Amino acid sequence: MTLADFLRGELGLTGTHLGCEHGVCGACTVLIDGASARSCLTLAVQAAGHEVTTIEGLGTPENPHPLMRAFSEMHGLQCGFCTPGFIVSAFEYLREHPQPNREEMRRDLSGNICRCTGYVKIFASIERAAELMSS
Amino acid sequence: MKPAPFEYHAPTEVAEAVRLLASYGDEGRALAGGQSLVPLLNLRLARPKAIIDLNRIESLAYHRLEGDVLVVGALCRQRDLERDPAVLARCAAIADALPLIGHLGIRNRGTVVGSLAHADPAAEWPLLAMLFDAELVAEGSGGRRSIRAADFFKGAFSTALDPGEILVEARFQLPPEGAGTAFVEVARRHGDFALGAAGAVVAGDDVRLALGGFDSVPLRVAPDPEAAPSAVNPVDDIHAPAAYRRRLAGALARRALELAKERAR
Ligand SMILES: Cc1cc2nc3c(=O)[nH]c(=O)nc-3n(C[C@H](O)[C@H](O)[C@H](O)COP(=O)(O)OP(=O)(O)OC[C@H]3O[C@@H](n4cnc5c(N)ncnc54)[C@H](O)[C@@H]3O)c2cc1C
Ligand code: FES
Ligand code: FES
Fold it and tell me: Reduced to 3 DSSP states, what percent helix, strand and coil does chain A have, rounded to the nearest 5?
């Protein structure tokens, strides 16, 4: 069983989305020991003894992470299918680059696909989150 | 889109992994980063009876520079090299190639040695292995042996590894300090497998060129951009016609050689 199916089916953590199930779309991105990974390409058993962070672990509706606030403020989502994967990947990106720049963002987030937004508002949201996090 | 059932083993020692793999013969598969194998399992293009997961073998998680040799253990993630300034500073071609491989989350998990074992004709590491005359160290029930990159890649997704053998280490023979090296490629979108790629070394009289993505295996060819289009045998497919790919081989050869020359001191 993949980690994605375990998170969603066994633990009921359905914030992690499944788009392609073969590594292409990034919707299923989680952090394993702090590093982004596709949960559709990781077996659940491989996570034993490691720390897995899902979108649920970054914030809640009552207490949203600055990235979640920024995506909502800046319209960084339309249908929202890609959003959990983007936020988890952006979390890793901002941890390593507290001052985002668009070139780097394009490169480091190239593994997440969005069919709705055209990406511009996603990048604007990440920039906004960086502002929120630094203030 | 779910894997067919398989038996799963997670040995902690190489010898145990080799014994397990050998016991399944053709029906066992090693699992490293899973970034190529798990898609095949999910799509049921691969249906091994058993998966031997190498991820718990801590002794394989290393890389180091030994003089001019970059030694990479089987559990070294592509991202581990990307994060090591000493490696990036020592070899520009590797620094060029790393960010072109898939995406960050893929490189966090995917291993260098797994990419060599997978032997995708368009992958970056097999081309770098040809460029740097890598020695690939395999371990099987009969012990260890070392295979030259030129003898390792047999065809698309096909290598000289025998069933039951594990690739434990890759040794890239980097050119001396001061040599210029470069890696360039063309892909439709960032992170896609390349339509074609070229790697070059300029170290005094030692000028080398390797081309990948054009044939079933990466090739070392004469370091001459004019000759490159006729040195490759590309096919037509949905991504590009063969005639385009031939021209691409010449253009990439020129770019790689020029960049390597600029960088040579
Ligand atoms: C969306 C996406 C884009 C990608 N883009 C690129 C790209 O542009 N360029 C590129 O090069 N790669 C790309 N990859 C593949 C990625 O780099 C893989 O990580 C790599 O090819 C395989 O390494 P792995 O450790 O994940 O191997 P695995 O997937 O675990 O294994 C791959 C194969 O090698 C065998 N194997 C692995 N390790 C060993 C070993 N030590 N001994 C014997 N056999 C072994 C396995 O049995 C399996 O057959 C991409 C992957 C995805 C999902
Ligand atoms: S569902 Fe995992 S990458 Fe698409
Ligand atoms: S918001 Fe719909 S896929 Fe990104």
Answer: 45, 10, 45
> Is the separation of the CB atoms in B111 and B118 below 8 Å?
no
Q: Which atom of ligand 1 is nearest to the CA of B117?
A: 34
ipTM of the complex model: 0.95
Full-model pTM: 0.97
Task: Give the list of residues 6+ apart from residue B208 with CB closer than 8 angstroms, or none.
Answer: B131, B200, B201, B220, B223
Q: Determine the residue of A74, A112, A115, A121 to mutate for testing ligand 3's pocket, defined as the one with the most ligand atoms within 8 A of the Cβ atom.
A: A115
CB distance A2–B39 less than 8 Å? no
Neighbours of A117 (CB within 10 A): 20
Is A22 close to B42, i.e. CB distance below 8 A? Answer: yes
Q: At A39, phi and psi to the nearest 5?
A: -75, -15
Residue type, B241: P
Q: Do residue A47 and residue A103 come from a single domain?
A: no
CA distance B42 to chain A (A): 7
A25 lines ligand 2 (CB under 6 A): yes
For residue B242, count other CB atoms closer than 10 A to its CB. 14
Nearest Cβ partner of A111 from B10, B51, B105? B105
pLDDT in tens, B98-109: 999 999 999 999
Per-residue pLDDT tens over the stretch B29-68: 999 999 999 999 999 999 999 999 999 999 999 999 999 9
Within 8 A by CB and 6+ apart from B18, the residues are B139, B140, B141, B164, B165, B166
What would the two tokens of residue B83 be?
């994060």
Give the distance from residue A108's alpha carbon to the nearest chain B alpha carbon, in angstroms.
6
Residues 118-177 of B with CB under 8 A from A: none
B231 touches B221 (CB < 8 A): yes
Domain B180-264, CATH among 1.10.540.10, 3.40.1080.10, 2.60.200.20, 3.30.390.50: 3.30.390.50
If one looks up domain B7-53 in CATH, what number appears? 3.30.43.10
